C-alpha cells in the first residue's frame, strides 16, 4: 500500500510539469517599482518566476511592449543571465540618460522545434552569423532586446539567410546615423515550418493600429521590434495597448504625450503546441548480398555510401552529415568484410511505433567462400525533412544515428552492424 501511494505521488508530481509559459515582466518599470531609476551606471537584477516547474530548463525570449526613455546619450544593456526550471534572471544597466520604463513580454518553451539564439548587448553593431542545431529550423524572426544611441538612429535588423546549420542577421547602415548606434542586442528565434505565423513587417511613421486579428489556437502573439528611426528630438515613448475578445486580438502601437518614433515591427504568432511530430528514418526495404572477395586486404572493413549525395565513409572515425529533405527514399550502400571465424550482426530501424519487431535483423556466420557482405537499405519518413546523421565507424562496428529535433532531442540508431566472434 505504501509503495502504491509513493508511486501515485510521483505520478502526480510528473503531471504537474509545464512545457510552455508566458507573462509580462514589470520589474524595470518606475511606476511599478519606484526605486527603479536607470541612469548613470545604475543596474538591477530581477528574478521572474514561472507559473509552475518545467521538466527541463526551457528556452526563454522576450519582446518589448513599452518604452519610456530620454534622449541621447542613452543606452541600456539588458540580458537573461540564468534560466532554471522554475525561473529566469534578467539584468539591466543604464549608461547616461534615464530609462523610465521597459515592459517585457516573456515566453518560455521546452520544445526543440524552436531554437532561441541570444545576442545580448553587441557593442559594435554589424551583420552576424549564428550556428543553429536543428536543420529543419528554416524560418524565424528577430526581436530587439537593447540599444544605445548617441544621436539620431535609423536601422533595421533582418534575417538575410537561413541554412541547415546557420542563420545570418543583417543590419541596415544609414549614412550619418549608423555611427550613432553604439550597441544593439536581440534574439533570433528560429523554428520548423509550423513554429511561426508571420503576418509581415509593419514599417510605421505614426501611431499604428493593427486592426482585428483572428486568434490562432495554441499560439502566443508577439510584437517583434526589428528597427527604429528615432530622430532624437524628444523622448522615446512607444507602447502597446491590446484589446482582446474570445476570438480576436487587436492593438495600437505608438506614443503618448510625445512625437511618434518611426519603427518597424513584425506580428508573429508563435506555436507553443505542435501537431507535426518529427520521427527517425525507417527502413522499409532492404536487399542483401554475400560473395567471395579474392583479396580482403585491399578492402576497407566497412564501406558506407549515402547513395544520392554520394557521401562515402571508409575509415574509422566519427562523422556528421545533413541529408537534404529532397532525398527520398534515402538509399544506403553498405559493404563489409566477413572474415573466417567471425559473424556479423546487423540491425536496421524498421518501425518507430512498433512495440515488437522494431528492426530488420540479420546474423551471418563468415567463411572463406562468403567473406564479403552487402546491405542495401532504403529509408523514408512521413513527410519531407532534413535529416541529421551521425556516423560512427570503428574496427568492428558501424553505426548510423539519426538526431531528431522534436519536443526533445533524441538520437536513434537506424543502422548498427557489429563484427563478432563466432
TrEMBL record:
GO biological process assignments: cell adhesion
Keyword flag Transmembrane: no
Name assigned to this protein: H-type lectin domain-containing protein
Keywords carried by this UniProt record: Signal
Ranges for domain H-type lectin: 48-109
Entry-linked Pfam families: H_lectin
Any one GO molecular-function label of the UniProt entry: carbohydrate binding
Stretch forming the signal peptide: 1-16
Amino acid at each position: 500500500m505504501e509503495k502504491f501511494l509513493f508511486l501515485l505521488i510521483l505520478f502526480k508530481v510528473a503531471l504537474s510539469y509545464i512545457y510552455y509559459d508566458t507573462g509580462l515582466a514589470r520589474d524595470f518599470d518606475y511606476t511599478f517599482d519606484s526605486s527603479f531609476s536607470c541612469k548613470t551606471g545604475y543596474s538591477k537584477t530581477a528574478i521572474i518566476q514561472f507559473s509552475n516547474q518545467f521538466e527541463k530548463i526551457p528556452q526563454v525570449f522576450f519582446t518589448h511592449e513599452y518604452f519610456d526613455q530620454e534622449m541621447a546619450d542613452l543606452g541600456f544593456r539588458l540580458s537573461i543571465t540564468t534560466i532554471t526550471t522554475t525561473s529566469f534572471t534578467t539584468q539591466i544597466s543604464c549608461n547616461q540618460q534615464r530609462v523610465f520604463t521597459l515592459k517585457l513580454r516573456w515566453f518560455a518553451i521546452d520544445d526543440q522545434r524552436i531554437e532561441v539564439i541570444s545576442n545580448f548587448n553587441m557593442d559594435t553593431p554589424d551583420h552576424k552569423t549564428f550556428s543553429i542545431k536543428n536543420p529543419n529550423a528554416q524560418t524565424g524572426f528577430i526581436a530587439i532586446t537593447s540599444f544605445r544611441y548617441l544621436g539620431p538612429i535609423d536601422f533595421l535588423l533582418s534575417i538575410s539567410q537561413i541554412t541547415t546549420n546557420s542563420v545570418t542577421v543583417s543590419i541596415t547602415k544609414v549614412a550619418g546615423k549608423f555611427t550613432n548606434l553604439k550597441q544593439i542586442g536581440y534574439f533570433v528565434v528560429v523554428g520548423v515550418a509550423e513554429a511561426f505565423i508571420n503576418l509581415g513587417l509593419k514599417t510605421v511613421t505614426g501611431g499604428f493600429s493593427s486592426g482585428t486579428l483572428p486568434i490562432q489556437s495554441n499560439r502566443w502573439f508577439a510584437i517583434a521590434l526589428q528597427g527604429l528611426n528615432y530622430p532624437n528630438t524628444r523622448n522615446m515613448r512607444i507602447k502597446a495597448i491590446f484589446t482582446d475578445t474570445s476570438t480576436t486580438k487587436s492593438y495600437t502601437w505608438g506614443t503618448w504625450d510625445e512625437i511618434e518614433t518611426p519603427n518597424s515591427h513584425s506580428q508573429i504568432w508563435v506555436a507553443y503546441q505542435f501537431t507535426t511530430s518529427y520521427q527517425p528514418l525507417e527502413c522499409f526495404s532492404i536487399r542483401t548480398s554475400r560473395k567471395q572477395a579474392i583479396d580482403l586486404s585491399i578492402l576497407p572493413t566497412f564501406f558506407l555510401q549515402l547513395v544520392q549525395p554520394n557521401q562515402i565513409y571508409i575509415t574509422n572515425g566519427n562523422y556528421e552529415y545533413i541529408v537534404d529533405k529532397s532525398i527520398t527514399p534515402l538509399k544506403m550502400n553498405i559493404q563489409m568484410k566477413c572474415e573466417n571465424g567471425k559473424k556479423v550482426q546487423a540491425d536496421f530501424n524498421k518501425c518507430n511505433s512498433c512495440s515488437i519487431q522494431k528492426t530488420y535483423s540479420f546474423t551471418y556466420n563468415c567463411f572463406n567462400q562468403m567473406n564479403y557482405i552487402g546491405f542495401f537499405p532504403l529509408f523514408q519518413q512521413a513527410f519531407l525533412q532534413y535529416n541529421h546523421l551521425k556516423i560512427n565507424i570503428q574496427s568492428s562496428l558501424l553505426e548510423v544515428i539519426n538526431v531528431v529535433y522534436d519536443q526533445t532531442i533524441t538520437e536513434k540508431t537506424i543502422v548498427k552492424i557489429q563484427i563478432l566472434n563466432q
